[in-house]
Amino acid sequence: MNTTAKLGGLGAVIALLLTEVPEQYAFYVALFIIACGALTALVPPPHAGSRWAVAYQVMTTIGLNIGWAENHFKPGQSGVRVPLADKPAAKQAVQAAGIPVLNRRGAPEPAATD
Questions:
Q1: What's the pLDDT tens digit per position in 22-61?
Q2: CA–CA dist 47, 91 (Å, integer)
């Protein structure tokens, strides 16, 4: 399933859920969603074993950090920034060092073959 379809479906679900919120509380619900999104941009993710890791991931979901807006830093993972042209060489170097390269879902990618 492609990202556009996922985001479209998620947008429809969110819109449906927001219609169920009484009108006098809609502003506060929207403010809560915006605050969660802002906090995930300001607060660094906790380490993977932290008791806050689950709360952080719930906060990122409420803040709608999905798809292109998804945080690049996640609990227990790091992000190595390299120029796009050097990405294949960087992946190969990391894998050659015995360090698994993770895909978008956090699962190890298969090792690149020469």
A1: 889 888 988 998 898 888 888 888 877 788 888 888 888 8
A2: 23
List strand residue ranges (DSSP E) for 9-71, in order: none
Range of the domain at 40: 2-73
What total of structural domains would you count in the chain?
A: 1
Which pair of structure tokens corresponds to residue 5?
Answer: 């379809």
Query: Which residues on neighbouring strands pair with residue 102, listed in sequence order?
Result: 108
**Between vectors from CA 38 to CA 21 and to CA 44, what angle results, nearest 5°?**
130
The gap between the terminal CA atoms of the chain, to the nearest Å, is: 30
A 10 A CB-CB count for 60 gives 23
